[in-house]
Amino acid sequence: MALPYKKSDVIAAYARVKKSIHKTPVMTSALINEMAEAQLYFKCENLQKAGSFKIRGATNAILQLPELDRKKGVVTHSSGNFAQALALAARNLFVPAYIVMPENAPQVKVDAVKAYGAEIRFCENTQEQRVSTMEQWQKETGATFLHPYDNTDVILGQSTCAYELFDQVADLDNIISPVGGGGLISGTALSASFFSPETKVYAAEPKGADDAWHSFTYGEIYPSKNPQTIADGLLTSLGEYTFPVIRQLVRDIFIVTDEEIVEAMKLVWTRMKIIIEPSSATTLAVILKNKEQFRSQKTALIISGGNVDVNRLPF
Amino acid sequence: MALPYKKSDVIAAYARVKKSIHKTPVMTSALINEMAEAQLYFKCENLQKAGSFKIRGATNAILQLPELDRKKGVVTHSSGNFAQALALAARNLFVPAYIVMPENAPQVKVDAVKAYGAEIRFCENTQEQRVSTMEQWQKETGATFLHPYDNTDVILGQSTCAYELFDQVADLDNIISPVGGGGLISGTALSASFFSPETKVYAAEPKGADDAWHSFTYGEIYPSKNPQTIADGLLTSLGEYTFPVIRQLVRDIFIVTDEEIVEAMKLVWTRMKIIIEPSSATTLAVILKNKEQFRSQKTALIISGGNVDVNRLPF
User: Fold this and answer.
1) b (16+ CB within 10 A) / e for A227-254
2) Is A35 near chain B, with CB under 8 Å?
3) A269 touches chain B (CB under 8 A)
4) What is the pLDDT, as a whole number, of residue A108?
5) Whole-model pTM?
6) Strand ordering across the sheet containing A200-206
């Protein structure tokens, strides 16, 4: 089945969002390269506005709404990076934002969403409650629901990250991106297919939430059931828009343990002096675990975000 | 008294070291600017090689040695960032390095020095023992002693940081740098006097180690006695080379408490996603404590380093 995206869609998405986002830097570390015996390029979306790549998709999706819908606002349910990103993107574009959060969401995330001026409603932390609270609010406001990842405009927004990257680093052999719901890896794979078809695209997934690996391997969406991992950004399941892109354009999904994730995270913190969240560290964990496969190659790692509660660190 | 430095000395130092160091980025944070009601520019020496600005001075001092002396190597005593920096600078330039460290030096720092291939000798943690161990080693090897800060070539090396900065940000109203032994602030003040004389230069010092403030205020070197602060890079006293530069070119020294330092450090970690050490956070602590004075102005903060033991954080 042909995917419903064209090269020009990515270029148009980038033109749309670039004023509202940072062109994030690509960092390298001589010491980590030595350890990995490879050339690694860290695409630092942890330094992105609101601390993760999610602002790309949020901004693109808002800008694709008709003027009238924009005025009525956007609504979503998220306890993670998409909540903050949508709140900030909406504020930047003068659009009202309504965010449904589970009542046990970390205070630090609630504070960030509030600081960006979004309205919040709390609900029980079940999928049913999140959806019904969101739908009720949608009825009251006429706001448009934006799914955190299973939305073509969100996916195209996320594709702008790798689009930038190919402009920053030439001749990449591989790109590795974390996979949760699949928005980032889908966007990454799309951009690679259009702008650097020789580059192989891989996903990194924690062992305690390996639903994407199952879905990829068995060919149908396998829902994430009671996921247990320190990589709190990767708990979600693939969606009907992200799954086909991954199935078609991603070469393989690598699994890493929480111990490997924490070790990689600590290495980046101490050697590169940047704060990355556990979800992002899955990519370096893949490299360190599969040294043979990546040896002497040029590999980009998408550092998806840096939103960590520094009062509750795993080391 | 005229200071023994010329504009051309700074330019020559930069030409000498630039191949061996990173041109570190200048970062900004919309959110912290909002909080401070000012325009702040963070000069990120935490992203420098070996994790601090010290490699600039170490590299310049080694390169100023005659060929024959270089072969015999360099020796110093340091438990901090200079030990790592000298070890790496020496390795880069194929020069032997001998580092005297106190026997209670943090393992993480010992490991870093070892990783850069320097030889280490341990001694009791007293000034006398450090100096005598160093002198004995110097006799055995013929190596040249490089003082961590009280050395004109080290000071000129550190001046290259602000030299870069003035090229990166125009029309700065102020620069704030931490002060410990005074190498960084001296170099900063020199570069400002030559390349941006309108820019006012301030130092930031922790309350528990406020010897530089005393020296500055009373006009003679006041030794640091039993300093107690979380800013472990700022425990040392001013020296005979750094003091006159500070006395003549620094506008004022601001004092901040450890609580203010930790709060500023946490703010940078969580909002900018970069790891800075407590010593570096003194600069932002000054801004947040003296909002009136810096309001609406363009101020650069020298983020001196990012060497923190992530297993032992103050939050």
Assistant:
1) bebbbbbbbbbbbebbbbbbbebbeebb
2) no
3) yes
4) 81
5) 0.94
6) A26-27, A39-44, A298-303, A174-178, A200-206, A252-256
